[in-house]
Write a structure and sequence with these properties.
single chain; 603 residues; alpha+beta; Phosphorylase Kinase, domain 1; Transferase(Phosphotransferase), domain 1; Arylsulfatase, C-terminal domain; 3 domains; six-stranded antiparallel β-sheet; 35% helix; globular; serine/threonine-protein kinase; nucleotide-binding; repeat; kinase
């Protein structure tokens, strides 16, 4: 959610009242009372809460980098320096929570959220409680893989259960799975009760790391350390802990300069960066955090060593700047300065692209789909650099063609996937497993596509087979939520449905999508690419319209949700306003990234 008065973005937890019984209301009230009193850098901040006749709402600090669960999902496991970085913050945050007389009771990677600057934020206090004096809890609750043995034995428990969970999280970060994970819940509980897990060996963790895990995973809660003692453990004090991590750590292993100690020769040349150049060129959703801060927090060196290092860095930074400027000038020699919040240069990281490509476009082997992104980028690249951008007005609009576009969307990728509604009222869901399910515009037919792009059409909902019923139910929920709670993203009265298509024509599907801190980018199979900017809710749609026979149509939806369409060639020949140009420039950069993700050489 966005505060329109200042542009601040928040996460919103919405709890429908029609699904709650009285006991659930009491739990929600307890969660709010506990969470609203917590204020710490490593705890998700609760900004506000309210309710209406339908729901209870909690406005929370936004954590755009998702959670450690997503890091493990993409990475499998992390390096030791990363594990120490996360662990140090988790211990600090949980120690603060305990100092406020609160037991979290559901610590796990999925509740360790990450801010835009990769700061760990502990969230979800739905199971949190306050020990009543000397009374200790006996209720069984929590996530199976992270439940302490005393909880399973229904013994009295308290803060020590959270300490156990931290040990499980550290193990999962280093190994890639929780210590007691099995195929069945019964076996998992048996292993927890017997404290039976495979110990970490030297190839995965240092001796001090192995020692800390054993210390935290003591069966007897009285033998587990206090968090103040954990803070002083050699694993977190004697071994190297990075001062910050780049955003790319969510998807790939960081470079050696990040995870090696500052004294390591291979990392000396990249310890500090020019913050001004970095802010202008590299400030995007996958860019490193402020590395100048990382430099300031490193151990002090001698003045002579610092001076030599700074000279090296300045020389390398100068070369780096010149390289970027030369590359930029080749394509945009006449470019005027564009607003800093909108135009961002995505970093060129081949290994990152390779990893992201498998997530965002697993169908890159399909030559037709690959050509879609390449052709779109080439068309934009041929026009945008030559475009006049100081015009007082745009060229005449195209009135007889209004493209299909995404009017509503909901990001539920932390559990299921992305749901979206198109301007013809068809609805689709791209699930996290890359399967797709859709309603046709009349909401009668259902179409399902497998990961191998095998499509099956069901003319009635009751024809959908049992294995797909859960996904059909999710499609219904996405549809109902968007119909009931989300406003249209553009003026639908201008949209005119195309002539009746063949019965065999498929509902347009989401090919891939990407959400950054600035915008959400959605690419459909039509072909169509849409960019929704968060800061002012404007939208850019690039579509290939066969009806006009003139190539690509550019549709700009302004802050008032009014849509204006222009032929790309007209924009090249006549120019456009600065507002339209800067958004089109951003779209051009996005299409280049998508085309390169598809492993195609861009001429």
């Amino acid at each position: 959610m966005t505060d329109v008065s200042n542009g601040n973005q928040y996460a919103c937890k919405i709890i429908p009242k029609n699904r709650m019984q009285r006991i659930h209301m009491q739990k929600i009230a307890r969660e709010i009372m506990i969470h609203k009193e917590l204020n710490h850098v490593n705890v998700v901040q609760m900004h506000h809460y309210f309710e209406d006749n339908l729901n209870v709402y909690m406005l929370l600090e936004a954590c755009p980098r998702k959670s450690l669960m997503h890091v493990l999902k993409y990475r499998g496991k992390v390096t030791e320096p990363e594990a120490r970085y996360y662990m140090k913050q988790m211990v600090t945050g949980v120690a603060y929570i305990h100092s406020q007389k609160v037991v979290h009771r559901d610590l796990k990677p999925g509740n360790m959220f990450l801010s835009d600057r990769m700061i760990v934020k502990i969230g979800d206090f739905g199971l949190a409680t306050r020990p009543d004096g000397q009374r200790r809890r006996v209720t069984i609750c929590g996530t199976p893989n992270y439940i302490a043995p005393e909880v399973l034995y229904k013994q009295a428990y308290s803060y020590e259960a959270d300490v156990w969970a931290l040990g499980c999280i550290l193990y999962a970060l280093l190994v890639g799975q929780p210590p007691f994970d099995t195929a069945t819940l019964k076996e998992t509980y048996a292993r927890i009760c017997n404290n039976h897990y495979r110990e970490v060996d030297d190839s995965i963790a240092s001796k001090s790391g192995q020692d800390l895990i054993r210390w935290l995973l003591q069966s007897n809660p009285e033998l587990r350390p206090s968090l103040e003692r954990v803070k002083e453990h050699a694993y977190l004090t004697k071994e190297y802990v990075p001062a910050s991590l780049p955003h790319t750590c969510c998807y790939q292993m960081p470079p050696a300069s990040i995870i090696e100690p500052p004294s390591s020769p291979s990392s000396m040349s990249t310890v500090a960066r020019n913050p001004e150049v970095k802010a202008q060129i590299w400030q995007q959703s996958f860019v490193y955090p402020d590395a100048s801060l990382r430099y300031q927090q490193q151990p002090m060196q001698t003045q002579q060593a610092q001076h030599q290092q700074q000279q090296q860095q300045q020389q390398q930074q100068s070369q780096h700047q010149q390289h970027l400027l030369n590359r930029s000038q080749k394509s945009l020699q006449k470019e005027s300065k564009v607003s800093s919040w909108l135009v961002r240069k995505l970093p060129k990281l081949p290994r990152f692209r390779q990893r992201l490509s498998s997530v965002l476009c697993p169908d890159h082997k399909k030559t037709g789909l690959v050509a879609q992104s390449v052709q779109m980028h080439r068309a934009l690249e041929a026009c945008v650099p030559e475009m006049k951008r100081n015009n007082a007005c745009n060229p005449p609009t195209v009135e007889d063609i209004v493209p299909l576009f995404v009017t509503k969307w909901i990001d539920y990728s932390n559990k299921y996937g992305l749901g979206f509604q198109l301007s013809d009222r068809s609805v689709g869901v791209l699930f996290n497993d890359n399967t797709k399910i859709s309603y046709t515009h009349d909401r009668r037919r259902v179409e399902y596509m497998t990961t191998d792009d095998e499509m099956t059409r069901y003319h009635r909902e009751r024809d959908v087979p049992a294995p797909l019923q859960k996904k059909l139910e999710l499609l219904r929920h996405f549809t109902e939520y968007m119909d009931d709670f989300l406003t249209e993203g553009g003026e639908l009265k201008k949209y005119r449905a195309p002539p009746r298509q063949s019965k065999n024509a498929c509902v347009p599907r989401m090919r891939r999508w990407l959400r950054t801190d600035k915008a959400i980018v959605m690419e459909l199979t039509v072909p169509l690419l849409q960019v929704n900017f968060f800061v002012d809710h404007t939208k850019m749609v690039v579509s290939q319209e066969s009806a006009g026979g003139r190539g690509y149509l550019i549709t700009y939806i302004d802050t008032g949700r009014h849509a204006s369409s222009y032929w790309l060639n007209d924009l090249r020949d006549f120019g456009c306003t600065p507002d339209l140009y800067e958004r089109l420039y951003y779209v051009c950069k996005v299409t280049r990234e998508f085309a390169e993700l598809d492993n195609n050489t861009i001429a």
